[in-house]
Design a protein that fits this description.
With 183 residues, this protein is α+β, with helices and mostly antiparallel strands. The chain contains three helices and six strands. The N terminus is likely disordered.
Length: 183
């Protein structure tokens, strides 16, 4: 019996018992334990004051499971963005090299690195269909922004240090993804 228990324990550990999926990403149940909650703030939706959702939206709250799902969906969307940014960087590099006859020019792109380390402002709502949605505002540093836990951080430019998006937690869809431009 002890041998069966040991074999079962080793099998569980080898095949995901450590909290990670086979692709190396954390399992959702363990993901929240890895999130630095000091980098999150949940701001209340104010009708008429927030332009992120329509006037029919109602304020809501977020659970630990919701935040884990938000992190997972952000990670997937950032992977898509970075793949497109890589393709764009290759295309721009080729075009500029040809146009300017400069074989040394390289456009490096504006990738988002480590989105889990960004500060995040979350505004959760229930939409007119009864679905839970959240607007997520992300920025790479809170330095010089002591108000970030009470007021929305809005900046012009800043590149990939600033991005925001909306997530429908009910349907698992991400939309209105926007990365700030570079001046």
């Amino acid at each position: 019996m002890k041998i069966i228990l040991i074999v079962f324990s080793l099998f569980s550990l080898a095949f995901g018992g450590d909290g990670y999926r086979s692709n190396g990403r954390p399992k959702r149940s363990h993901l929240f334990e890895m999130i630095d909650t000091s980098k999150y703030v949940i701001l209340k939706f104010h009708k008429g004051g927030d332009y992120y959702f329509g006037k029919d939206a109602k304020p809501d709250t977020l659970s630990a499971e919701d935040i884990a799902k938000i992190e997972d969906l952000i990670g997937k969307r950032i992977s898509e963005y970075n793949r497109a940014e890589k393709d764009s960087a290759i295309s721009i590099t080729k075009r500029i090299r040809k146009k300017n006859h400069d074989p040394n020019f390289t456009w490096t792109g504006d990738f988002i690195k480590n989105p889990s380390k960004y500060y995040k402002q979350l505004i959760p709502i229930i939409n007119i269909k009864g679905e839970k949605e959240v607007w997520v505002n992300c920025f790479c540093s809170a330095d010089g922004k002591p108000y970030w836990k009470k007021n929305i951080v809005l900046v012009m430019d800043g590149g990939s240090c600033y991005f925001n998006l909306k997530i429908n937690l009910t349907t698992g869809t991400v939309y209105d993804f926007m990365v700030n431009g570079v001046a």
